[in-house]
Design a protein that fits this description.
Layout lengths: L4 H5 L3 H4 L7 H7 L5 H14 L2 H11 L3 H21 L2
Length: 88
């Protein structure tokens, strides 16, 4: 969800991230730096875009089991859906 903020607010990510209460690694990932969180963000974007081959490469380089990524993805989708429902 955070990766969409620049498009929604018309503000560069580098200007937004210092104001967000998030871990340094997540901040760096959102800014496009190559770290573990950045690779996971790349996996997420690829997964949602249907780029399976790229996702497989990211999984192999991250060392995370694919079933864990799937579980985390489902949990995140459920969390986001709950947030949207709660805001109605």
């Amino acid at each position: 969800m955070l990766s969409l903020l620049p498009a929604m607010l018309c503000v560069p990510m580098e200007e937004l991230t210092p104001t967000l209460p998030i871990r340094k690694e997540i901040r760096e990932a959102l800014e496009g730096r190559d770290n573990r969180d950045g690779r996971l963000l790349s996996w997420l974007k690829g997964h949602e875009s249907g780029h399976r081959k790229a996702c497989e490469g990211i999984i192999q380089s991250s060392g995370i089991r694919p079933e864990r990524l799937g579980k985390f993805y489902i949990e995140a989708v459920i969390w986001a859906d709950n947030q949207l429902v709660a805001s109605d």
